[in-house]
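Hello forum,

I keep getting stuck at the same step: I have a sequence, I want structure tokens, and every attempt I make locally crashes halfway through. Rather than fight my setup again tonight, could one of you with a working pipeline run this one for me? It's a single chain of 343 residues.
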Amino acid sequence: MTALPPTYGHLDLIKFAGHLFNVNQVVVLLNTDPREPLVYQRFSALVRAVNNLGHKYMVKWQNEEVQQEPVSEDDQAFWDDWVKNLKLYGFREGDYIVASEEYGVRLAKEAGGEFMPFDPDRWVRYTKGTKARNDPFHTWKDILPEFRQFIQKRVTLFGAESTGKTTLTEKLHHDYNFMGVGTTKLFEWARPYLEMTGPEVTDQGMFNIWQGQYALQQTTYLDVLNPLVIQDTDLWTTIGFWEDWRPGEVPPPIYEDARNTESHLYIVTKSNIPFEHDILRYGGDERQTNDQYWLDFADKYGLNYVVLESDTLEEREREAVEHIDRLLAVNPLEYTRIGKEYQ
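Reply #2:
Ran it on my machine without issues. Output:
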């Protein structure tokens, strides 16, 4: 299989093979082309998914260009090459060849194996690799969770205090769920923490905020429940406030954590709306930071950001949707292998 992307349909086929009589080992042969997207990630995802099934199952990876279809009915060399290929990866005469496509009949005959088809009409689970590849964000639940983390998109609302980040996060979460793109929204971990423990910011408190924000982000990203995560803060935001509060005293390891959980897009909300007093804001009755501080911060750390110029919620929402749509329009799986029908 090429598994672009790995789906539950692939996993169903693999489990079917393991339940055939007298099968002691199931070998999944993953064939990728080095020019294709996310080749190692596909292998890694399949290995982790198959490992959950038990020791009977294993994945072998062939990452090289291999002819995928015969050029004609008389192209015997194609079948001879694939028989050699199978034997190279452990096939022996009499073994089962399990596939959902008709090529398995001829391949088993040429190799001296026994063909066992699995659900060629997709009755058990209607999962089509082509559809998932062409539109992964609308076929999210067909894709194996072990692979989803490599294509999930993350967006953070970014900027000074009291610039509408939380309100806009909630609006965008509603918009994209309504549009059929499953979306998870993340809150600012520091807010409930400070509300429950007291608004005074201390060194220990900032350390706890770092831990809590990191754990919240990692938990959500690894669950990969939805293709889009929209959040009104992240660890880079934590660092921004920490650098302003205690210049030169930010613990170095937080920068690595921030880079490892970095969003694909930062949407900067400008301070062109009225400030609202909040006891949790350490600036008191005015913003402690300004727009230029956050733009300079984003440039300093190479964050991918855009700036919303509007000063109304409706226009900001429209602007933000345009930017996120462009992010989602880039299909991370888009690739055409000439002369090949993907499985």
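Residues 203-223 form the longest helix (21 residues). If your local run keeps crashing, start a new thread with the error log.
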